[in-house]
Amino acid sequence: MQRNYQTVDVILTAAENQTVEIIKSAADTSIGILPVVAGAIVTLIGLCLHLVVKRYWPSAKEELCLTGQNPTSMPVCCLTVSVCARPGRSSELRRG
Questions:
Q1: Which residue among 34, 49, 86, 96 has the highest number of C-beta atoms inside a 10 angstrom radius?
Q2: CA-based angle 26:31:36, to the nearest 5?
Q3: What angle do CA 96, 91, 63 make, to 5 degrees?
Q4: 85 — alpha (psi -120 to 50), left (phi > 0) or beta?
């Protein structure tokens, strides 16, 4: 009977050691992935900011049209705000 307990103890000790090694290697791997995940998050935040600014910030050409100045070398400036503005943005632009 004593021998069976020792055998089970040896097997459980080996399994415990392997489990600890697996957890340690998983922790080392996750620490190595952390900078990649942080970089991806920063990139996504930058992309979202770019899209928001591109959508809601009027361009220099739109600003010139709103003030009545000629944004191009053409002799006639934009007749209406909607001609200068991107589609769907004429109501959002501020008059200068």
A1: 86
A2: 120
A3: 35
A4: beta
